[in-house]
Every structure is written in structure tokens, then in C-alpha cells.
# Entry
Amino acid sequence: MTWIGLLPFAAFIVLFLIAPTMKIVVGAFQTPQGDFTLNNLRGLFTDSILSSYWISIKISVASSALGCLVGFLMAAAMILGGVPKGVRSPLMTFSGVASNFAGVPLAFAFLATLGPLGLVTLILKTHFGINLRAMGFNILSFWGLTITYLFFQIPLMILIITPAIDGLKREWREAASVLGATGPQYWRMVALPILFPSILGTFALLFANAFGAVATAIALTGSSLNIVPIMLFAQIRGDVLGDPHLGYAMAFGMILVTAVANVLYIWLRIRAERWLK
# Structure
């Protein structure tokens, strides 16, 4: 009867994951009176909602691509670049914390740093004559939100890709050197093909992570950037003009997008683990 110890966890999953998800799925196909309808799903194909999905996808792709690139370079430098061993433990600890740092505190941190009156903004303008606003940078914009997302995207990439880089066997590098391969040739023809499923799988996970981020986007940009989470919030917050069931349909669409990304991540992760065995 040792499985009884799993009952609290199972109850938590049912109450806070499965039940809310099922309510969203069912509500996406219901009218306010509880009748079956497809009008909520048809509402997803209006210009404003399609545009919000497209903006969310672009932000997710941009933050995931930059997160993968920077995170991979940092992890590779930490493991293979001759960085002092004492750096690894603090970096991994920080990555574990930063990958879960989001919401209002993260939005406030970036507003206080790169906002119109942020610390870095004022230092650059006062001491170096660099006016970020005049150059077109705005923290309440596409690139502003993308940069903010990088704070948790890069650490998450480091956490996931580090074991994969650790799994590269020294014998593969030695064999490539014996056969006359240079360092760039080894990475292009041996290491990167082996790591590619892990990198692509992590990209899919980072995409899902950014696409589903809600609190940070709302706290940072408010209504200045029409991404899906913000439009979803506008539908379900209870205003007279809101339509909760259209909000359910939008949430259902987000579930489908993130589900595809997570399934892709799991499949690629399995393939990557085969290579590293």
C-alpha cells in the first residue's frame, strides 16, 4: 500500500491542473447558458486575436532562439572553455533560481533598470550621451518583453543543456583529432549533430515557457502590447465587454500550442538520450 503516499500529490494534480484544464476545454465549446457551440472557436480567427497569437509566437521564438544561443555558449564555456571550477556551482545555483523568477518582481526589476527612468537608462544618458528612447528602444515593446523573458530563458537553457554537454565523451574528441579534424570541424561534424536534438528540444521547451508566461507580460506592458495572455486576461476579468467563453477558447488554443511544443521537446529529449548513452 505504499502508493497511498502518492495520494496527496495526485489530489493536487487533479485539483490544480486537470480540473482547471478540463473546465477550460469544456468552456471553449459552451455558450453562457451552457449549450454546445463552435462560435467561440470561430472567434479565434478574428484579426485582433490572430494578431495576438502571431505576436506571442514571434516573442516566444525570439526569446527562445536568443536564450538557446546565449545559454549554450555560457554552458559550453563553463564546461569546456577552461573557466575556473569554482564558477560552475554558483552559476548553476543562480540558473536554478533565475529560471523560476518571473511575474511582477521581474517586471519591476526591468522597469527599474531599463525603463524610461531606469538606472541603466539614466546612466547611459547622463554619462555617455546614449539616449535609449531616442534610439527607439522601449521596454514596453516587442524587444523589451523579449529581453525581459531572456532573464529566465537563458538560465533554463543552461540547466537543461549542461548535462548534454557533459555527456560528450572525450574519446570522440580524441578520435576526431587523430583523424586530423580541427576544433571547428569537430564541433560542426561531431559535437553539434549529437547535441542538436537536445538543443532543438530545449528550444521547444523555452518556446512553451515564453508562450505561456502571463504575469510578467501583464505587469510589464499592461495593454500596450496585444499578446495572447493579455487579451485572454481582458476577456475573463469580468468587465461588461468581456466574454469568458471566448477567453476559454483562447486559453484552449494556448494549451494546444504549448502541448505541441512540449510533445516535441519530450520526443527530441528521448532521441538525444539515445545518442548520449
